[in-house]
Amino acid sequence: MKLKVLVGAGDGIGPEVTREAVRILTSVAEFGGYDFQFTEMPIGGQAIRQTGTPLPTATLDAALESDAVLLGAVGSNEFNALPPNRRPEAGLLQLRQALGGFANLRPSFAYKALSANSPLRPEVTDGADILFVRELLGGLYFGEPRAWDRESGAAWNTMRYTRDEVVRVARVAFDLAGHRRKKVTSVDKANVLEVSQLWRATVIEVAQQYPGITLDHQYVDACAMHLMNTPRNFDVVLTENLFGDILSDEAAVITGSLGMLPSATIGGGVNLYEPVHGSAPDIAGKGIANPLGAILTAAMLLRHSAGLENDAQAVELAVRKVLEQGYRTADLLREGQPGQHVSTQEMGRLVHQTLNELIDRRQALHAV
Ligand code: IPM
Ligand code: MN
Q1: 154-156 and 236-239 as β-strands: parallel, antiparallel, unpaired?
Q2: What tens digit of pLDDT does each residue of 180-189 get?
Q3: Is position 34 annotated as part of the catalytic site?
Q4: What pLDDT is attached to residue 43?
């Protein structure tokens, strides 16, 4: 198994958490005898500082030639005054478009060990396990026309979808639901928006090819509420780009910290892996960021780009065990709750060590 991984650590806490994710991947490769090659390139604010643009051609070319792209985070306050198309985030959006992945998978899993971390009661969150399938290349993020006309004092963006764009992402959601609890909740605003009416009609059409899957529909405002009230009622949540951006951050409340959430973008030429959290400039460089979102993102890379399901599960199990042992980065510590405070690096090392023990044991079993 050979895999070329382009690493774009990016801004803020990106480099700190990505280092821990790469350490995990390197370890999996050593144990399994796989050949993983990592190349690091600038993206986002880091790239603007070095080259004047958030997605340098060299980074884009390397990404297109790789088997998978692993990102940290992009975004930096120093560029806040720039127009959207020159900010660090523009580099990420250009990269997403160039790689072509349209289905952004964002699992939100309520770890039992963290049930006291959510402001929601444990009896509400226990067992919650949601997979958001966020459409990533359409909607308001990319629709034309878009502009801020300073003279007239008006600005506009366009939420646009074609039937085909909805069909392809809906198929991903139904396929994945088939391996889970067989339920898709499609989220839209079909009581107001034509684009949502197209969305809903198309999803209903696709659902006919999946008789084993239950489909229901929610308006996005109601969904935002149901996610907090009854998170266990959700299995796969299928939605458009901006709604998915907002709801997946909201779902962090169920898990207890935004730092826990991974993501994978599939369906294009090269899959893209990035934690859901941002660059968190306020805590960058302090060694206190939670690397588990990035590490769980590495597990998704093993699953979706390397076909190494067993190794992906081993990484996920290692994360769970370390949490069960009570180790907590700052974002996971709660007053009055037991927990051993650890740094970004220590957390990475603990997962690494636990993973090695798990793989050792697995290999010993196979050797019998
Ligand atoms: C995310 C982020 C990005 C998005 C930004 C950084 C462009 O918020 O991945 O959720 O809005 O998609
Ligand atoms: Mn977001």
Answers
A1: unpaired
A2: 999 999 999 9
A3: no
A4: 98
Distance CA 268, CA 36 (A): 21
Question: Which residues are close to ligand 2, an ion, with C-beta < 5 A?
Answer: 245
pLDDT at 368: 65
Residue whose CA lies nearest to ligand 1 atom number 11: 245
- Report how far ligand 2's centroid is from the alpha carbon of 135 (Å): 13
249 is catalytic: yes
Provide DSSP, 3-65: EEEEEEEESTTHHHHHHHHHHHHHHHHHHHT-EEEEEE---THHHHHHHSSSS-HHHHHHHHH
Is 126 among the catalytic positions?
no
Q: Measured from the CB, is residue 75 less than 6 Å from ligand 1? A: yes
Provide the phi-psi class of 116: left if phi over 0, else alpha when psi is between -120 and 50, else beta: alpha
Q: What is the pLDDT of residues 38-63, one digit of tens each?
A: 999 999 999 999 999 999 999 999 99
pLDDT < 50: residue spans in the chain: none
